[in-house]
Specification:
Elements: H1 2-13, H2 28-47, H3 57-67, H4 73-80, H5 84-91, H6 98-116, H7 123-133, H8 140-150, E1 188-198, E2 201-210, E3 216-222, H9 227-240, E4 250-253, H10 262-270, E5 274-277, H11 287-299, H12 309-324, H13 339-346
Parallel strand pairs: 1-4, 4-5
Antiparallel strand pairs: 1-2, 2-3
Length: about 350
Amino acid sequence: MLNWAYRRRYCIAGCATLGTIRPRQTNPVTRSCRRSCGVRVVNWIFKKGFELLRVSTVERYQFLDQWSPHFPVVVMCPILHVCRSKYYAWRQLGRESPRARSDRRLLVLIRSLHQEWNGILGYRRICVRLRQDHGESIGIRWVRRLMRSAGLSGVPKKRRPYRKPGRTDQSVPDLLQREFSAQQPNQAWVTDITEFRTGEGKLYLCVIKDLYDGTIVSWKTQARPTADLVVSTVQWAVEKSSRQDRKRTILHSDHGSQYTSHAYRKCVQRYGLRMSMGRVRTCADNASAESVFAQLKRELVHRCRFRTRQEAIERINQYFLNIYNPWRRMPISTPKPNAKVALDERTNGAVC
């Protein structure tokens, strides 16, 4: 800055103006203090015989770290031929950063949740558990990074190919039109049937799901896929709900033979339910009920083998009562205020 000012004045007014600029002067006391401090450090190091020792760079760093409270590091580094930035970097090697401490603490919680739920939870649902159960302010990407580094993963979904929609049955309308949501409990139900393999043969399961909070209202199992299985499932769902709640309730299904039977239609009319069906050969019209079976098979059925039908019934009842319904949470949408109250009223024991 001073040289620039000299050149600028010389170019404008010549040599006459150079005498008006006074160079920056340092306090002589400050200069003497700095000089004396440097001399004392040099003399002290020489007295230690440090220059006669062939020490490594790490030993020089250790020497600096030991005597830094007594002498300035900026003075000792040139004398010891040590780069100051490298010395500070060496000091941070053995210390754990705040982020590393947070990662280590959160990884313990993630491992416990992953083990508690038998490895079925992915990073999205583990992030929800950490936020709601443990009060952690954590993002999805943070959880995904920690789970990936630890080799943890949930049970992924199986991708399904696109299928062309089929024809529509004009006798029963589609009242949902793929709008799988409801504003109050018992406003819209979806139902479907699936099968499992056991050591004694196949076992068929029918469920009814409430679109308000995603809980399973009722479920029944049977060795044969008859219309009685569907009728008994509807009867149990009606018994658990009040007459006022199920008034004008929509019961949506596909075009399976059980749902087109005379016994099922008569049961729906007797309880005052509104029948709804999707298109033929179009599973997407009943995707909400299909997702229940996909999650059940992904998290339970495909991970174990059932030797008997009774064992499968007990495991399925335990899954719906202790895992699916109590911990049913939507990571994307906001939880509805009456969802927990409705869930407590519906959980009334297992069925077979």
